[in-house]
Amino acid sequence: MIARVTEYFSRLAAGFGQGWTRFWFTPSDAATVSAIRLGVGLIVVYLHATLSLDLVALFGPDGLLPVADIEPLEGGAFSYLNYLRTPGELWAVHLAGLAVLVLFTAGLWTRITSVLALVVFLSDVHRAPMITGPTEPVVAFLLLYLCVAPCGRRYSLDRLLARRANATQADAWSAQPLTTATIAARLIQVHLALLVGLMAFSQLAGDVWWTGMGMWWLITRQESRLVDFSWLYQYPLLLAAWTHMIVLFELAFATLIWVPLARPLLLALGMVVWGSLALVTGDLPFAAALVVASLAFVSPATFLACCRGRV
Fold this sequence. Notes:
mainly alpha; 0% strand; 70% helix
C-alpha cells in the first residue's frame, strides 16, 4: 500500500513538472509578443502625447503638481521628471521620451527601446499618480514583460533592416522559436487572467453589481460617457442582465480562457464587453489595453497565417 501511494505521488510530481516546463519553457515564435508590442506601443505613445497639452501647466516650476507635493505620494518611486525644473528641460525630455516610444512601437533597436519605453512610461505615471486611471497598470505590466520578450523579431524595423542586409539570415532569425517569447506571453496571460478575475470580485464586493445596477451606475456618469444610454432606465431587466453578463464574463474569462475550445469565443466576447464598457465609461485606452493584452492568448501560428508574406 505504501509503495503504491509513493508511486502515485512520484508520478504526480513528474507530471506536474513536465506540464510546468511545457507551459513556461516551450520555445515559440515571436509573432504574438511582436503584435502586442505594436498595440501597447500605440497606446503608450497616445498616453505620453496627451501630456503635451498641459506639460508645463502640470509639471513646470509654477505648475499644478509641484515636486515637493508629489514626492510623498510617490512612495520613493523613481521619475526623472522630478529633476527637471525649467519649461525647456521639460519639453526636451518629454520629446525625447516620445521619440523613444515611437521607436519602440516601430520596433527599432527593440532590446534597448523596450527598457527605455518602460522607464519613460513609469516616470510619467510616478510624477502624476493622481491623474492616472485603470489603464496605466495594464500598460505597465505589458511593457515590463515585453522587456523580456524578443518583441522586435517580427513586424518591426529591426527585421526590415536585417532583411536588407541578408534576407535569408533575417528570415531564419525572426522565425527562430525562443523560450523568452513563451515566458513573456505566459506572464501576460497569467497577469491578465488574475486582473480580470479581480475585477469581477471587486464588483461583487459591493451591492451595486449584485443588485444589477452596476451598468446604470456607470451610465449616469455624464461627464465621461461616449454614448448616452440613459434611455435604458425604461428597461430595468435589460440593465440588470447587462450588469450580470459582464460579471459572469469576467469570471468565465479568468477561468475558462485556459480551455482551448472556449478561448476563441471568450476572446471575441471580450472585444464586445470591453468595447461596451468603453462606450459607457469613455475610457477607450483601458478597453484597448485589455484587448491588446488578450492577444497573448492568440497563437503565433494564427498571426503568421493572417500576415502570410508580410512578416
